[in-house]
Each structure stands twice: as C-alpha cells, then as structure tokens.
Specification:
With 330 residues, the chain is of the alpha+beta class. The chain folds into 3 domains: 1-54, Uridine Diphospho-n-acetylenolpyruvylglucosamine Reductase, domain 2 (2-Layer Sandwich); 63-116 and 156-211, Uridine Diphospho-n-acetylenolpyruvylglucosamine Reductase, domain 3, CATH 3.30.465; 216-324, Enolase-like, domain 1 (2-Layer Sandwich). Helix content is 31%, strand content 21%. The chain is built from 12 helices and 12 strands. The protein has helices spanning 14-24, 37-42, 77-82, 84-89, 91-98, 103-108, 111-115, 161-167, 185-188, 268-274, 281-294, 305-325; strands spanning 7-9, 28-31, 50-53, 63-65, 68-72, 171-176, 179-184, 203-211, 216-224, 235-243, 250-258, 265-266. A hairpin with a 6-residue loop joins strand 11 and strand 12 (265-266). The chain binds flavin-adenine dinucleotide.
C-alpha cells in the first residue's frame, strides 16, 4: 500500500506549527508519531495536501506544576510508561501507555496522538474495496455495514490512555487558532463517531494536566484483547480508588470504560456502590456485576454486546483488585 502524495511540513516551534495549521486549515493533518494517521492515509481514509509533522518540536519532561502533573502531548508512550513521576502519581496511565500496540508503536506513538485517535470499525479501517463499493457514513456515505440498516455510524473509540485520564479527572491544554484553551477531558470527546474529538483542524493539543492526589489512592488499567499484544482493545477500563485514613473504606471511586462507544464512559452507578464501603473481594465482585448491568456496549470487531458485558464484569473486578493492592499502606 502506498501513501498518497502530500507535502511534509516540519515546524521547529509550536508557534510555527499553529501558524501552518491556520494557513492550511482543512488541507492539513497533524502528524505526531504517525502510527495512526499514516495507516489511515494508506487506506485512503485521509488524503491531506499537507502533513504537519511535529517530530522537530521540543518535548518537555513531565513536571509537578502547582499540584498538577503536566505532560507534553508529544511524549512518546514508551516515555509515559517509564516515567518515574507518572508511575508514582498516576500508575494506571503508565500501565495504559504500556498496553498500546508494540514496542515500535509505543516508541513512535505519542500521548496526544493517542487521545486524538479516530474511532474504528472493522469495515471502515480497510481499503475502500473492502467496503462493498458503497461508502459507509464515516466515508461520507449513507450506510453502516456493521449494524445492517443502521441509521448512523457505530464506530468505537478504542484509545487506551483516555479512560485513565477520565478517571484521573485530567484536562488537556489546546492551542486553538494560537490561543490557549483548557478542556476537561470529559468534554474533549463529542460522542459522535464521525468526529470523536472536539478539536478543529486549526487546534493543537499541547499538554495534559492531571491533578496530583496526596491521599491514599490506587489506580489500575485493564484491557481485553483477542491476542496478548499488538492489538486494539475489545474493551478497556481504568479505575481510581481513594480510601479514608483507615486504609480500607472507599472515599471516592472513578471507573471509566473504553471501546464500547464513541467516547469513554464513566460507570457512575458502580462508583456509587463502592463509595463509603469497606473494600473487599465481595464488594469488587458486586461492582463487576453492577458495571456489566450499567452499560450497553456497542458490539464491534466481532464481539457481541453480551460478550463485552461479561468481559466488563471481570475487568472491573480485576482492576479494582489491582487498584486496591496499590493503595499505600501505613
Ligand atoms: C499495529 C497497531 C497497533 C495499535 N495498537 C493500539 C493499541 O493497542 N491501543 C491504542 O490506543 N492505539 C493503538 N494503535 C494506534 C496508535 O498507534 C496509537 O493510538 C498512538 O498513540 C497514536 O499516536 P501517534 O502520535 O502515532 O498519532 P498520529 O498518528 O500522529 O496522530 C493520530 C491523530 O491525532 C492527531 N494528532 C496527533 N497529535 C496531535 C496534537 N498534538 N494535536 C492535535 N491533533 C493531534 C493527528 O492529526 C491524527 O488525526 C495502534 C496502531 C497500530 C498501527
């Protein structure tokens, strides 16, 4: 498969990058690591005249800034997975970054690129000839092959780091037409599979901001895939568990599931089941059952909704057990 023709532009500063985005607008695509945008171009899903490569931009190290962990959107996923300050303050994020693809993908792929991933579907993410000729909704057509007679696109958002950032109550910093803007992560996604992120073509995601928690907290990420590695999530899940001073009563819980819709989804009913309760295996089993009842996953990539529910039940139980085991003990 060959790439279509395009002109590669390689700004050396964020200012130059935003200038180019403003100048070329819809004719340009940002390329960070290129591990998603280049395959999409090879499949004919994108054919921009200009590709704005960000690999010459400086990348800052993660810092603790006024109680927030500030991460450069261009950090590679390998660096996210290895960073000591991230592992100490947001272990689940390091775990999620490590769950992406393979070593090569994580070395090239960036945190920002992962958050701006397009939604996926087994029919759409193919060459056009696999699309039974007539284009689907996501290719500007009028049909869905995955849900026959579907009245809309049902592609799902599968990025691994996004659910953790939901559970960590993170926000993202964006340069929109050159002006800075902060967006809470749960407002960053539209829920529309055709345009999963709120970013416009002139916007550049520059940083991720995670509140640092000084209390007793455990975090965990878990993912189910059909193969052990190099595979997108059939379903993924991120848990943040806070406990009171006694070390065993849950004071707050945030659980987010991904790859079941066009945006990650918080499991608020399951969270409230946990809050105020003593953490135990029985409670985690109950939480797994509640989680499976709480949502209706979109079936995708050959996984039925009932199968994904069964996966969600065990992922929730396992992630809660892991998060609990990571809560610091006195
Ligand atoms: C074989 C294979 C396996 C994979 N497995 C996984 C997996 O298990 N889990 C997973 O989550 N992903 C997976 N991916 C998808 C992808 O590799 C990762 O999501 C990666 O993090 C994307 O980052 P990138 O920097 O390469 O993004 P790019 O390809 O550079 O960009 C992705 C999208 O984000 C936009 N973008 C990038 N950076 C910015 C920015 N700073 N501001 C605004 N827009 C931006 C681009 O325009 C593009 O639309 C896989 C890909 C492949 C090829």
């Amino acid at each position: 498969m060959l790439l279509p023709r395009f002109q590669l532009l390689q700004p050396k500063s964020i200012e130059q990058a935003t200038e180019l985005l403003g100048k070329h607008e819809a004719a340009a695509r940002i390329m960070a690591g290129g591990t998603d945008v280049l395959p999409r171009m090879k499949y004919g899903l994108e054919s921009p005249s200009y590709v704005i490569g960000l690999s010459n931009l400086p990348v800052f190290e993660p810092v603790d800034s006024d109680g927030f962990l500030l991460l450069d959107s261009l950090m590679s996923l390998t660096d996210v997975a290895r960073s000591e300050i991230i592992r100490q303050n947001a272990f689940g994020l390091a775990e999620a970054a490590y769950a992406v693809g393979s070593y090569q993908i994580r070395n090239m792929g960036t945190l920002g690129g992962n958050l701006c991933l397009e939604t996926r579907c087994m029919y759409y993410n193919q060459q056009h000839s696999y699309q039974f000729v007539e284009p689907c909704f996501k290719r500007n057509g009028d049909r869905c092959y995955f849900i026959p007679k579907g009245k809309q696109c049902w592609a799902v958002f599968v990025a691994d780091t996004a659910p953790v950032l939901f559970s960590l109550d993170a926000s993202v910093e964006v340069l929109s037409n050159g002006s800075p803007k902060r967006i809470p992560i749960d407002e960053f996604y539209t829920g529309n599979p055709l345009h999963p992120c709120t970013l416009s073509r002139q916007d550049l995601l520059v940083a991720v901001r995670i509140p640092i928690n000084s209390g007793l907290r455990g975090t965990a990420f878990s993912k189910f895939t059909i193969r052990g590695g190099l595979e997108f999530a059939a379903i993924n899940l991120a848990v943040v568990l806070d406990v009171q001073e006694d070390g065993s009563t849950c004071s707050n819980a945030r659980i987010t599931v991904g790859a079941v819709a066009a945006t990650p989804i918080r499991l608020k009913k399951t969270e409230s089941l946990l809050i105020g309760q003593k953490l135990s295996d029985d409670l985690f089993n109950d939480a797994g059952r509640t989680a499976a009842d709480e949502i209706r996953p979109i079936p995708h990539h050959g996984f039925s909704a009932s199968y994904l529910k069964a996966c969600l039940r065990s992922l929730t139980r396992d992630a809660l057990t892991s998060a609990c085991s990571r809560i610091p003990r006195h």
